[in-house]
Amino acid sequence: MKEFFESFSNREISIIFWTTTIVIVMFFINISASTNLTKAFFAKKLVFIYVSMLLYLGTIIYFLYFIQLWEISLFKDFIIWLLTSAFVMLLNFNNLKSINDFKNILLKILTINIVVEFIASNYNFSLLKELILIPVVTFISLLAIVAQQKKSENKQVLILLNGILSYVGIIIFGYVAYKIVVSPEQLFTIKNLKSFLFAPLFTILFIPFVFLIVVYSKYELIFLNINRYNFLDKSRKRQIKFAMMRYGNINLKYLNNAHNITIWRKSELLNEKQVHFYIREEIKNSVTFNGVNYKESADL
Questions:
Q1: Which of the listed residues 5, 86, 102, 190 has the most CB atoms within 10 Å of its CB?
Q2: DSSP 8-state symbol, 272
Q3: SS3 category, 163
Q4: What is the enclosing helix (H) or strand (E) of 241?
Q5: Burial of 149 (0-12, 13-18, 19+ CB in 10 A)
Q6: Interior CA angle at 73 toward 69 and 77, to 5°?
């Protein structure tokens, strides 16, 4: 346990402190809204996903421990990754609509920014300096984002804020470069190598789980549409569901088309004598409504 707590850097302690403080303050500012948000976050459907996710990740950790690649200090990296990257991916699964979206996640993992961020995170200032630096830089960054919304009106302010952020970045870069030259052994260790590889490895291993959640959510929407159509009898609904599963499988493009069929082709689902063959052919094509592509009509 001591090794676990000692694995947190001054920057991570600072981020945890300020994040916890802000969350507590926000909770007491609006207790009712915070309570409703907490209830929504722990809805039954989401709790099932959380439990499944923890079982999946727990199995991966056990395997790494079994082959002696896991150590206690990595739990810190796991918790940080879980509360940031993992939950962001999981809670935004509705935005993952094609294989290309998953490819983009992989491309982000392979960017040079990952290396830069890792090196910078291994060289921290004192705890007091980090406690001051984190909120100041965060506040200035938020001001810059707000100023960017009306760039023409806030040109001078934006120049000043970006200048301050650049100055802070240069100081941090200089400090990190100095530390690498003076004590390179602090960076190049087996422990740091494991820490560096942790986030990319777990993100790659987590993608199949998120993919299955996306597939499950698409089937849920498809079946929800089918179930609410009273003009379809139970036997017809079973046929349609079976055909959707057989020909849609886990192909996201086909499942998007299947969902659109249940919205725009209700009459065909009712009247087609061979609904199996109809779905087999139509699920491969983009659905049109009055001759207009569904995606195009949705954008109008």
A1: 86
A2: -
A3: helix
A4: helix 234-248
A5: exposed
A6: 90
> 289: helix, coil or strand?
strand
Q: What is the CA radius of gyration of the chain?
A: 25
Asked if residue 285 lies in contact with residue 257, where contact means CB atoms within 8 angstroms, the answer is yes
Helix or strand run (H / E) with residue 5:
helix 2-6
Residue keyed to tokens 């993919």: 211
Closest by CA to 78, choosing from 11, 158, 174, 12, is 12
d(Cα 266, Cα 262) in Å, to the nearest integer?
Answer: 6
- C-alpha span between 165 and 177 (Å, rounded): 18
Provide CB contacts within 8 A for 86, sequence distance 6+.
Answer: 53, 57, 202, 203, 206
**How many whole angstroms separate alpha carbon 10 and alpha carbon 128?**
9
> Taking phi first (over 0 means left), then psi (-120 to 50 degrees means alpha), and beta for anything else, what does residue 223 get?
alpha
- Sequence length of the chain is 300
Cβ burial, residue 172 (10 Å; 0-12/13-18/19+): middle
Question: Helix (H, G, I), strand (E, B), or coil: what is residue 288?
Answer: strand
Alpha carbons 204 and 55: distance in angstroms, whole number: 17
Measured CA to CA, the distance from residue 235 to residue 226 in angstroms comes to 12
Asked if residue 214 lies in contact with residue 248, where contact means CB atoms within 8 angstroms, the answer is no
pTM over 0.85: no
Nearest to 275 by CA among 239, 246, 229: 239
HSE toward the beta carbon, residue 100, CA cutoff 13 A: 1
Q: What are the mean pLDDT values of the chain's consecutive 10-residue runs (300 residues total)?
A: 66 81 82 79 82 92 88 82 81 75 74 59 72 80 73 76 78 74 71 76 88 90 89 87 89 88 82 83 71 43
